[in-house]
Write a structure and sequence with these properties.
The protein is mostly helical and about 80 residues long. It contains four helices and no strands.
């Protein structure tokens, strides 16, 4: 069991931060999903912060992928 002080001292998982940055910068949804899942696995093994951040990165990464496919399909349908 961790104390409140240990929880405050826990570091943020770097992969979670990078994954959410990929989503926010609209870089690549696939990269956000991969890095978010990597972060979730690391966070579960260690005492790091950022689980919700990584989970949101995965969810928003999937949303970004699906919306990208819809937009691409719409563009192709309009132009051809």
């Amino acid at each position: 069991m961790t104390t409140p002080r240990q929880e405050r001292l826990a570091t943020w998982n770097a992969w979670a931060v990078v994954a959410i940055a990929c989503v926010l910068l609209l870089v690549v949804g696939v990269l956000a999903v991969i890095l978010g899942n990597k972060a979730i696995n690391e966070i579960k093994k260690s005492n790091q912060r950022g689980l919700k951040l990584a989970q949101w990165a995965v969810v928003l990464g999937y949303v970004e992928i699906v919306s990208g496919v819809i937009v691409l399909t719409a563009i192709l349908a309009i132009t051809y």
